[in-house]
Structures are given as C-alpha cells and as structure tokens.
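Workshop exercise sheet. Pairs work together: one partner reads the sequence aloud, the other fills in the structure field after running the prediction. Swap roles for the next sheet.
Pair: D.N. / O.F.
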Amino acid sequence: MSSPTRVLPREARLHAVALAQGRGGRAARLRAIKADIDRNLDRRHRALDSFSARQRITRRYAQRLFESEGTSFTECVLGRRLARAHRLRSNPRLAERPISAIAFEAGFGDLSYFNRTFARTLA
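Structure field:
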C-alpha cells in the first residue's frame, strides 16, 4: 500500500523548489545585496554596513555570503563598477563622453585609481 501524497501550500512548494535548485535563502540574500549594490554604485563611500543594515543582516553574515562565492564585498563592488564603466565606454552614443565622467558615473572617486584598475583588468 502506498502512502498518500502530501500536498504542500504553494509557498512551501516554491521554497522547496528554490532550495533544490540551489537558490535558498542565503543565495536570495546575496542577490538582494548585489541588486542593492547595482542601484547604489554611483555613491562612492558606501560601506558593507549600510548594505547589510538595509537587508537586516549582520555585517559578518554579509561577509560570509560573499565568501561563499569566493569573493568579498569590496571585490564585488569593484567588479560591478568596472563592468558599468566598460558598458558606458562601449556605448557608441557616449563616445564623446570623457573617461573621467565615465569613471565618476561608475562610482570611482579617484581617476588615477580607476585608470590603474581598469588597465589591470584588460591585461
């Protein structure tokens, strides 16, 4: 005799599917932090504390989330800023825009640091 199939509420099923696909609560938190980073890249002096506070998690927990991907908050922000700068620089409509304006729009506060970092990623 087979056991009866248990029907879970819709939310529970979605949560179970997300966990099974490796997109559990930790991954969802990390995605939320990264989305917050993307929305605030142009703000130069943003610290992990402000992002973790908005997600209502501790700074250390946020650090662990990034560590689980083999990176850090700082590396994530830098990578996203560089990617934004690359997209802006590659946009033909923005070809006349000075590189300094692109760097500042991407969130870099120091043009020399941007130039060194951008060149290093192209090497």
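Discussion prompt: The two ends are 66 Å apart (CA to CA). What would you look at next?
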